[in-house]
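RECORD TYPE: protein structure
NAME: Lipoprotein
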Amino acid sequence: MNRHHLAALPAALACALLLGACASDEDAPAAAASDSSSEVSDDLDAAYAGAELGADIRSQFSSCDDVEPAVAPYIDGLVANASNGVDEYSVHCLWETADTVTSLSEIRSVQVMIEPNSGEVLDAATIEAVGLEVVPDSTIEAAGGSAHTMSQEIAVAAATVTSVELPEVKVTISGGRWDNYPSLDADASVAVAKQLLGL
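PREDICTED:
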């Protein structure tokens, strides 16, 4: 499994949670949406195959230390994953709860993935067809891009996956809302992505 597929896992998990919570035996439209999502995902996998990050992105982010300032308020108290790094295919950064934490209410994580895009950007109709929510942003749209998000509410917490796409690069941020911590919701994630992309 390549890193593109790994990066897609949080979004796929969020989709599965939402569909699992909302679908029923009589819910045929949800099943159709799932099939549509799978087809779009297959198309995107084909488009990404073999794609590499541009040299400008790799020069800007030599390690996750270069990403950390953009998410500093959201990763306070978290620990960088040992697999964090940058290669020709992606910038992959994950911060998690320390092993010493035992309270379920404190378990959280933040992930930032920067990957090459296929040259095409998902339009609003496609985003909505696969069950995602469009996040309007004039700056991103003026740069030829789009943004979308999905959230799953769980008691006092919410898991949120937000992606910002430009024709040549895509930023995906997985975070959410936790009690007593700054919320990395869709708007905050889009702001982080714009900072990382220099928009």
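COMMENT: Helices lie at 3-22, 28-48, 55-60, 68-71, 124-129, 138-142, 186-197.
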